[in-house]
From TrEMBL:
It comes from the Bacteria. Its EC number is 2.7.13.3. Keywords: ATP-binding, Kinase, Nucleotide-binding, Phosphoprotein, Transferase, Two-component regulatory system. The lineage of its organism: Bacteria, Pseudomonadati, Pseudomonadota, Betaproteobacteria, Burkholderiales. The keyword Phosphoprotein applies. PROSITE patterns: PAS. Residues 51-77 form the PAS domain. It catalyses: ATP + protein L-histidine = ADP + protein N-phospho-L-histidine. This is histidine kinase. It comes from Paraburkholderia aspalathi.
Length: 377
């Protein structure tokens, strides 16, 4: 972790959830017709200090900017901006520091230095220090660029053909980002495996069998890591179990896997929904919500019983995750917790509410937490 990382900031999960709700409402009101790319992993979210220093970032934000989560912590936005954008960025951050909500376009360079035009939506979040706040920041990649982005990110009233054009543009941007990740991540890993295997083969031909064996052992480990990376990327794009089993069965399998992997935790699944009752475009988000909430419960709630409920309600579907743990809605989060727990939960909140659903967390003191999400379907 960077030595320059600001310390001592504590953020309540309830405040983070409320900030996410305010941010989404304000962003839609500010630019109601803005078209942007939504990553397969969900919203790109980070917590920044008022001067633009990263406190934490989720995996989507890190992937968008070409860094790991750990690499971003302590880094400043100004360090990632081209020289021509530094002064305007500093000015916009100064405005954000004195407003509850502020939205502005900027240009950042990822690890490769390739400029990325972005819209930043920033919502103030109170912290445990008097007079200090953090900025919950949503990074969006607009479908318009250059002067159009600087002057008006709002799309004109569009026909069905226009909407299809913007949808296609979004798909192309998403494909470009995934292609870059595959090239920079998996491509490099496979190249290294190839070189290691070739080196081992040369050693065998020279009679250096023991050295070759050690190198092949290291190659096998690298291959296992690469397989894990492939599974992670595929799972983020669309969990394989959804296509193999359908959503209800996939949720049941998830509960069993969570229970097997946790100590002294019973996970119960109650469901009265059939797979055909669930709109196809919601299935992946529903699965990810359950996965995120269950993992957080096991890691942080100190619960012994967790119940995942999925049922029909008037006009839609309701998913609930309830535990008998210590409750964390009002618990203060360190910046590390905000990344691993808080940003994960509000990322799920963004997924639910961006589809017109509702999301809530209720804490019952020492008697557990209830996470609820409802969708019109």
């Amino acid at each position: 972790m960077d030595a320059n990382e600001p310390t001592g900031l504590q953020i309540k999960l309830a405040d983070l959830i409320e900030a996410m709700r305010k941010l989404c409402i304000a962003a839609r009101t500010h630019e109601p017709g803005t078209a942007s790319v939504t990553d397969a992993r969900g919203a790109a979210l980070a917590l920044l200090t008022p001067d633009g220093t990263f406190l934490s970032a989720n995996r989507t934000a890190a992937a968008l900017l070409g860094y790991s989560n750990a690499d971003l912590v302590g880094k400043q936005l100004a360090d990632m901006a081209p020289a021509s954008s530094c002064a305007p960025l500093a000015s916009e951050l100064s405005v954000s520091a004195h407003r509850e909500f502020h939205s502005f376009p900027t240009v950042l360079g990822g690890r490769t230095g390739q400029p990325i035009q972005l819209m930043l939506h920033q919502q103030s979040v109170p912290t445990g220090q008097t007079g200090r706040s953090a900025l919950l920041t949503l990074f969006e990649e607009p479908l318009v660029s250059g002067p159009e982005l600087a002057n008006a990110t709002r799309l004109p009233d569009a026909s069905a053909r226009d909407h299809l054009t913007y949808l296609t543009m979004g798909q192309q941007k998403e494909r470009q980002r995934l292609a870059a990740e595959l090239h920079d991540g998996l491509g490099q890993a496979l190249t290294l495996v190839k070189l290691m295997a070739e080196d081992a083969l040369m050693r065998i031909r020279r009679g250096q069998v023991d050295d070759a064996a050690q190198l092949l052992d290291a190659t096998v480990l690298r291959i296992r890591e690469t397989i894990g990376d492939v599974r992670q990327i595929c799972g983020e794009l669309r969990p394989l179990m959804l296509d193999q089993l359908g959503l209800p069965a996939a949720l049941g399998s998830l509960c069993r896997r969570i229970e097997r992997g946790a100590e002294n935790v019973s996970v119960v699944f109650n469901c009265d929904v059939d797979d055909e009752d669930v709109p196809e475009h919601l299935k992946a988000d529903m699965f990810r919500l359950a996965q995120e909430a269950l993992n957080n419960t096991v890691k942080h709630a100190a619960a012994t019983e967790v119940t995942l409920g999925f049922r029909r309600i008037a006009g839609g579907l309701l998913m609930t995750i309830q535990d008998n743990g210590i409750g964390y809605e009002n618990r203060s989060l360190s910046t590390e917790d905000a990344c691993t727990t808080g940003l994960g939960l509000i990322g799920m909140q963004h997924r639910v509410e961006s589809h017109g659903g509702t999301f809530s967390i209720q804490s019952f003191g020492t008697s557990g937490t209830l996470v609820s999400a409802a969708w019109n379907a």
